[in-house]
Write a structure and sequence with these properties.
30% of the residues lie in helices and 20% in strands. By secondary structure, it is an alpha/beta fold. The longest helix has 15 residues. The radius of gyration is 17 Å and the shape is globular.
Length: 179
C-alpha cells in the first residue's frame, strides 16, 4: 500500500473560517508576534498571551472541518496516510483523520511550564493561576517563536518513508536532494 504524507498549513483551515496569521486582517494584525507567541512575550505579559489564545480557542470551537479535511479522510480508505500539520487546530481529527502529527502544538491542549510532559486537554479559557498537578502554571501547548519544534525529527522520519508527498495550504520551499 502506498504511503502518502500530507503537509498542511493555514490555508487548509481558512475555508473553515479559521483566520490565518499572515493574511490581510490576519491574527498578527494589531499584535507584535513576539508579544503573544514567544517566551519573552509570556514572561512580560502572561495575561495578554492567555487572552490571545483564549480567543483563538473560542473561535476554533465554533468552526467545522471543511471538504479538504474530509477528503483527506477518504484518502485513508485506500492508502496509508500520515498528516503533518503546521496548524494548531483539531480539524483533521474532527474530520476523522487518524494519523496526525502537530508540528506547532495544539490549541485545545495546555502544558506545565516546568514539566512539558504534563499535557492536558483544554477547551475552556486558561488563566494565570491555572496550575498543573505539580503546582506550576499551565500555558498553551503551542510552539512559540524562538522555541524548538519537538516533533520535527518525527516529521522528518515520517516524510522520509513517503511514496507521495502532498502539500496543502502552505508555502513550501522545495530543495531537491542530489541523487
Amino acid at each position: 500500500m502506498k504511503k502518502i504524507v500530507v503537509l498542511t498549513g493555514a490555508g487548509i483551515s481558512a475555508e473553515s473560517g479559521i483566520k490565518t496569521f499572515r493574511d490581510a486582517h490576519g491574527l498578527w494584525e494589531g499584535h507584535d508576534i513576539l508579544e503573544v507567541a514567544s517566551p519573552i512575550g509570556w514572561q512580560n505579559n502572561k495575561h495578554l498571551v492567555l487572552d490571545f489564545y483564549n480567543k483563538r480557542r473560542k473561535q476554533l470551537l465554533q468552526v467545522l472541518p471543511n471538504l479538504a479535511h474530509k477528503t483527506l479522510v477518504k484518502l485513508e480508505e485506500k492508502y496509508n496516510v500520515n498528516i503533518i500539520t503546521q496548524n494548531i487546530d483539531d480539524l483533521h481529527e474532527r474530520a476523522g483523520s487518524k494519523n496526525v502529527l502537530h508540528l506547532h502544538g495544539e490549541l485545545l491542549k495546555v502544558r506545565s511550564i516546568k514539566n512539558p510532559a504534563l499535557v492536558y486537554n483544554w477547551k475552556k479559557d486558561l488563566f494565570v493561576g491555572d496550575l498543573c498537578e505539580e503546582n506550576s502554571q499551565l500555558r498553551p501547548h503551542i510552539v512559540w517563536f524562538d522555541e524548538a519544534v519537538p516533533m520535527f525529527e518525527d516529521a522528518i522520519e515520517i516524510t522520509s518513508k513517503a511514496d507521495i508527498l502532498i502539500i496543502i495550504g502552505t508555502l513550501c520551499r522545495f530543495i531537491p536532494r542530489q541523487i
